[in-house]
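#structure-requests
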Amino acid sequence: MFALVYNKALEERTRAYTLEGRRVSYVESSAALTAWKRSGDYDFLSQVSSVPLQQALRHLQAAFAHFFAKRAKYPTFKSKKKSRLSAEYTRSAFRWRDGTLTLAKMNAPLNIVWSRPLPGGADPSTVTVSKDAAGRWFVSILVEEKIRPLPPVEASVGVDAGVHALATLSTGEKIVNPRHERRDRRKLAKAQRALARKEKGSNNRAKARLRVAKVYARIADRRHDHLHKVTTRLVRENQVIAVEDLTVRNMVKNHSLARAVFDASWRELRGMLEYKAAWYGRELVAVDRWFPSSKLCSACGALHDKMPLNIREWTCACGAVHDRDVNAAKNVLAAGLAES
């Protein structure tokens, strides 16, 4: 329903801009929404709170503002199948009382299974209700919370991201890569084959599509859980965390590595480290992507001309024996501390 309002308003604004060369304002779109509710074709829009519908128009207004400022492309229509369906409720459209949440035009509170409790004395300002491709409903509650920085520690760590090991630390530890996508690849392939056999537009195809989405959701949930545990631990134990500034977009162009790189989710690992370090008073240092961390001896500093990927262990002229990934992590840490 909210995607419908967004798409219809986008259609009207596109028509006005294309045929008349006129920009439609948010106020005009809001007035049009009122007219749609009174028409016979869209009177069902009155059955839900007006706040999420207005929020859809505000999101569209922001999308056009970014487009005219040349910060983004022209807004596109939202797909019910591909887009995550969501509705945003501001403070006037919900009631928060004694740990229960009641949305506008609802007679009873939502039956919520909490993933974690809200901070004590929290005063929600925005509630977003969404439904993912696997048919699961979520409620996201926005509150203002002051996160206390962690006590300073002396330890620092360099992190070398990899495929065989998710991350190799300068301490010599290798954090295992669970390879969640590989573990569920057979189940995923079976669900996708069943989907391909179903007739388009049929109920059986919709059910098969849901089964595929549930397998993907299982993979993503387990991956996120593992990444959260790893990044939280790294942030808690270290004051400075040095990582390589990898260009994942270019790396996935190598088709032999793309699937493994996506499964490792290096970009997501980096993103989690960034915001958690900012929360808890830690420092995240990104070392230049061209820094030769694998070719450099962490013991004597000698730089080797070549270091093919198939070489996992090597001996320097100074006599130091190196594990390729541990040596790279040590060099990343040294470069990160120099920048820090």
